[in-house]
């Protein structure tokens, strides 16, 4: 089982804001990273080092981290944002990588 | 552009061995840490292993420690994963992935290769 906990699903109306949370002790040791995985595709990094966006990622994606919680925010969600989102950091020992359990975002 | 191409997947009997390979191009391979990440069909992502840019250090998930070995050949731009004593819960897509700044996380993924463990 994952040491980083995410809600299984989040629904958002087009143009509204979606918040995806990820909780775990690992965030007290290392930064948070977020990946988007669309159906049948490989994951894509959308946020690194808590709140930085890689080149090509829309500004509507933002991230933050506080204590044992990290949050991915999609401001003005679009239909193309429907995907699974996974957080990443370290496990409770701080020695190993760990992915969150994943959140399915539905835009409807 | 960055390319990571995995090979070696297939059907393997429980308890046997399999070796996955990944060929990298489009970046200076020897300057980057590399990861293997897996995903069982229809399930979430699981970090498997990490090797530092020069091969000096490797870390493994508890689920594979002692059974899997990650290695690299910087002269050939290749990354390998030797999988021994495979078991049913090793069935997954295995992704070769490049480490981001500092090496700790993944910033680019290959297309993956499917490993199916049969009983």
Shape of chain A: globular
> Count of DSSP helices of chain A?
0
Quick one: how many beta strands of chain A? Answer: 9
Instruction: Let me know the average pLDDT of chain A.
Output: 93
**Helix percentage range of chain A:** under 10%
How many DSSP-defined strands of chain B?
Answer: 11
Structure report:
The complex is a heterodimer of chains A (108) and B (119). Chain A has strands at residues 9-12, 18-23, 33-37, 44-47, 61-66, 69-74, 83-90, 97-99, 103-107. Chain A is mainly β. In chain A, strands 1, 3, 4, 7, 8 and 9 form a six-stranded mixed sheet that branches. In chain A, strands 2-6-5 form a three-stranded antiparallel sheet, with no helix packed on it. Chain B is globular, with a radius of gyration of 13 Å. Chain B has strands at 3-7, 10-13, 18-25, 34-39, 45-51, 58-60, 68-73, 78-83, 92-99, 106-109, 113-118. Chain B is 0% helix and 53% strand. The mean pLDDT of chain B is 96. Chain A binds chain B through residues 2, 30-31, 33, 35, 37, 42-45, 48, 54, 84, 86, 88, 95-102, and chain B through 35, 37, 44-47, 50, 59-62, 95, 100-101, 104-112.
């Amino acid at each position: 089982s994952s040491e980083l906990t995410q809600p299984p699903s989040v629904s958002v109306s087009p143009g509204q804001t979606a918040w995806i949370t990820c909780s775990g002790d690992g965030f007290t040791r290392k930064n948070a990273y977020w990946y988007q995985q669309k159906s049948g595709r490989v994951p894509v990094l959308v946020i690194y080092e808590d709140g930085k966006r890689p080149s090509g990622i829309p500004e509507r994606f933002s991230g933050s981290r506080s204590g044992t919680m990290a949050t991915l925010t999609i401001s003005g969600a679009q239909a193309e944002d429907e995907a699974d989102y996974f957080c990443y950091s370290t496990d409770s020992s701080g020695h190993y990588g760990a992915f969150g359990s994943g959140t399915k975002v539905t835009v409807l | 552009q960055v390319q990571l191409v995995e090979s070696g997947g297939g059907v393997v009997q429980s308890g046997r061995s399999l070796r996955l390979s990944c060929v990298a191009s489009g970046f200076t391979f020897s300057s980057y840490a590399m990861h293997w990440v897996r995903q069982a069909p229809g399930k979430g992502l699981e970090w498997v292993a990490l090797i530092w840019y020069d091969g000096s250090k490797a870390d493994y998930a508890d689920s594979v420690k002692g059974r899997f070995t990650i290695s690299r050949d910087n002269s050939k731009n290749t990354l390998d994963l030797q999988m021994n004593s495979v078991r049913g819960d090793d069935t997954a897509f295995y992704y070769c992935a490049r480490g981001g700044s500092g090496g700790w996380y993944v910033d680019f993924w290959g297309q993956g290769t499917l490993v199916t463990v049969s009983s």
